[in-house]
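Input (structure):
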């Protein structure tokens, strides 16, 4: 449990320190924004992997006994989380993490029509689905932390992108998107077209989902299947 708590503190520090504008500006000034984003992404990934490994090694201290039906939640939710994750990595989206604008069409924004922050919502779905299915202290620390950080992400990221893009360009690019999933579609500001999202986020997401099921028991030590 000590390693998990220490990993949590390092994970928080790697997100809190670069968020300070003077530190972020100094780092970007030394190597450029692209180098900063690459280095920060690699550091975030490394700390996340360590956090997962520390969680797997943490002792089981039960808070509540999970009901059998809760084991279905991750199985039903994670395909959507995986599709969001893959779409975030391969789709142009100047409104969120990565900020790649080449190929982005504000009138047909693809996955951004569902949410302009698919990567963040992938973590929200992942964390939220795993909390009821696990009733121990380590799970509550890990998934509760990631859920809280992820839910705080969209408003903060919107403010940063609005400031960097300028109000007029922000409004133009974001008019058919929403921070919360499906709000733009329900309100009529956007249409959900699978052809705009493309087949690869869906195919890649489902393949990732299968891979996670296969690797869950070897890496985490628990089968994700409810039987």
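Output (sequence):
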């Amino acid at each position: 449990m000590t390693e998990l708590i220490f990993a949590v503190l390092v994970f928080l520090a790697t997100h809190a320190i670069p968020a300070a504008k003077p530190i972020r500006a100094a780092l970007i000034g030394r190597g450029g924004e692209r180098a900063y984003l690459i280095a920060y992404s690699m550091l975030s990934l490394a700390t996340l992997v360590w956090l997962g490994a520390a969680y797997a090694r943490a002792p089981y201290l039960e808070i509540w006994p999970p009901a059998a039906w809760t084991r279905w939640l991750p199985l039903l939710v994670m395909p959507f989380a995986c599709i969001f994750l893959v779409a975030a990595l391969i789709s142009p989206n100047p409104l969120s993490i990565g900020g790649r604008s080449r190929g982005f069409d504000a009138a047909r924004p693809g996955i951004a029509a569902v949410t302009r922050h698919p990567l963040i919502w992938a973590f929200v779905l992942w964390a939220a689905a795993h909390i009821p299915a696990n009733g121990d202290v380590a799970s509550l620390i890990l998934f509760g932390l990631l859920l809280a950080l992820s839910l705080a992400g969209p408003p903060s990221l919107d403010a940063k992108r609005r400031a960097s893009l300028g109000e007029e360009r922000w409004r133009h690019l974001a008019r058919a998107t929403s921070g919360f999933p499906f709000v733009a579609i329900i309100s009529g500001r956007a249409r959900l077209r699978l052809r705009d999202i493309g087949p690869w986020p869906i195919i890649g997401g489902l393949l990732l989902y299968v891979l996670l099921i296969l690797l869950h028991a070897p890496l985490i030590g628990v089968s994700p299947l409810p039987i």
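Notes: Residues 1-58 form one domain. The chain has two domains: 1-58, 66-220.
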